[in-house]
Amino acid sequence: MAPRPSKTADKNIVDRTRARRNADVARTVKETRDRLSQQPGNPAFDREMLKLHAGALTASAAVLPLLAFAVAVGGLFIGMGAAVALWAAVTALSYVGLFIYARHVRHTDAADIDIGAIHLRFLIAHAATGLCWAWFATLGCEPCQIEQFPIMKAVILLIAVAATAILAHALRGSLLATFALPVLAYVGFAANLWQPVEAAMAGLLAASLPFFSFVSGHLHRSAVMLLSFRTEKDGLIAELETAKSISDEARRRAEEANLAKSRFLASMSHELRTPLNAILGFSEVMAEEVLGPLENQTYRDYARSIHDSGNHLLTLINEILDISRIEAGRYKLKEEPVDIAHTVEECCNLVELKARNKDLRLIREFEPDLPQLYADERAVRQIALNLLSNAIKFAPTGSEIRVRAGWTTGGGQYVSVKDNGPGIPAEEIPVVLSAFGQGSIAIKSAEQGTGLGLPIVQGLLDIHGGRFELRSKLREGTEAIAIFPTTRVMPSLPGDGARRKTSSAA
C-alpha cells in the first residue's frame, strides 16, 4: 500500500518523494513559457506591446507636430498662403488626439485592455493622421514658382515615414495605415512622372514604405524578444525566491530538530549516568572480589570486561553530552583565573603513563611568567586532555609529542600539541572537525574513537571567544592549536611570578 502524502507543512516542505515531480514541473513550465513567448498572438505580450506603443507615442509627442509646424513656417515663408497653415493646424490636432488616447491606454491596467478594440482604435487614429499627410501631398504652390517643390514634399514625407517607423514599431500595421494613402496621393497627384527627378522621388518614396515597414517589423520583433526575456527573468526570479523560501524553511526546521535533539541529550545526563555508575561499581566489586572470592576465573574476567566496557561507554556518553550541551547553548562557563601553563602541565602528567606505554616522549615548552586567563578551568583542562589524547593516539611508537604554551602575536595565549603521525589530507580537515568525523588515514593507522574530541575542543574555544586551528601535512604530522583571545588574558599583579614559582616547587 502506497503511503499517503502528509497534509502537514513539515512534510510538504521536506517531502523527498516530490523532488523529481517538482523538477519535471519546473522544466515543463519553462518550456511552455519559452514556447508562448515566441508565439504571435500571446495576449499577455499583445497587451504589453500596446502599452509600449502608447508609451513611445507619449514620450515623443512633440516630434511630428513640430515637423508639421516647421513645414507650415517654411510654406508661409515661400508664399504658400493660409492653406499650409490650416494643414499644419489640422495635422497637429490629429496628433494631439492620438497622443491623448495613447496616454489613456498607457495609464490603463494591462488586465483591462481589450486588445482588438484598442488595436483598431490606434490604427484608425494613425489613419486619421495619414489623411492629413495625404492632404499635404496634394498641396500645390503656384505663387511660389519653385520647380523643386514636389521633391521637397517627397523629402518631408520620407522624414515623416522614417519617424513613424521608429516611433510606432510596437503596433503592427501602423506605418501602412498612416502612409499608404499619402504615398499613393503623391504618386498619383503631386509628382509629374514625366520628369525624371520627380519620377525617381516618387519611386523612392514608394520603395521606402516597404523598406521602413521591414525596419519597423524588425524593431517589433526585437521588442517582443525583449519582453520574452523580461518575462523569463521574472519567472526565474519567482522560482528562485520560491526555492529559497522552501530551502530556508527546511533549514529552519532541520535546525529546530537538531536543537531539540541536543536539548534532549543534554537533559538525559542523570538518567544515563546513574545506571552506568551502578554497572561500574558492581563490576569493580566483583572483579576485585571485595565481598568474597569468585572461584570461577571466567566470572572475574567477565566482570573486568563489563567494567572496561562501562568505562568506554561512560566516556562516550560524556563526550556526546558535552557536544550536545555546546550545540544547544547550555554549556555554562564557571569562569575563574586559570594558569594555563600549570593546567597543561598537570594534563601532561595525567597522560604520561599512557605515553610511556607507547614509548612516546612529551616535550614541554612553556613561556615563562604567563599571566592568568579568565576562563573555565574544567574546559581548559578538557581542551588540553583532548589534544594530548589525540596526539598520543595517532603518534607512531618511539616518536615525540611537543607541547607548547605561550603568547600569540595578537596578545592572547595559546596551547599547541604537535605530533609526527600520519597527518591529515587537506580535504579531510573539515570532516575531522565535524561531529563523529574521522580521517581515512587515521582510521586505518590508529585505534578507533568517537570522533568528538576535536569538535568539543572547537566548541569550548568558541564559547570562550577563541579559535581552533588544525595544521597537518601527510606523513609529516599534525599540530593542533587552541587560541584564547586577548580579552581573556588578565593583567599581571605584583607577586604573581613568585606565587607561580612556589606552586611549581610544591
TrEMBL record:
Pfam families: HATPase_c, HisKA
Gene3D superfamilies the record matches: 1.10.287.130, Histidine kinase-like ATPase, C-terminal domain
Keyword Transferase among record annotations: yes
InterPro entries linked to this entry: HATPase_C_sf (IPR036890), HATPase_dom (IPR003594), His_kinase_dom (IPR005467), HisK_dim/P_dom (IPR003661), HisK_dim/P_sf (IPR036097), Sig_transdc_His_kin-like_C (IPR004358)
Region (Disordered): 1-42
Keyword Disulfide bond part of the UniProt annotation: no
GO molecular function: histidine phosphotransfer kinase activity; phosphorelay sensor kinase activity
Composition bias type Basic and acidic residues, residue spans: 7-36
Reaction(s) the record says it catalyses: ATP + protein L-histidine = ADP + protein N-phospho-L-histidine
Start and end residues of each Histidine kinase domain: 267-488
Enzyme class, first EC level, given as a word: transferase
Classification via PANTHER family: OSMOSENSING HISTIDINE PROTEIN KINASE SLN1, TWO-COMPONENT HISTIDINE PROTEIN KINASE
Protein name per the record: histidine kinase
Species of provenance: Nitratireductor mangrovi
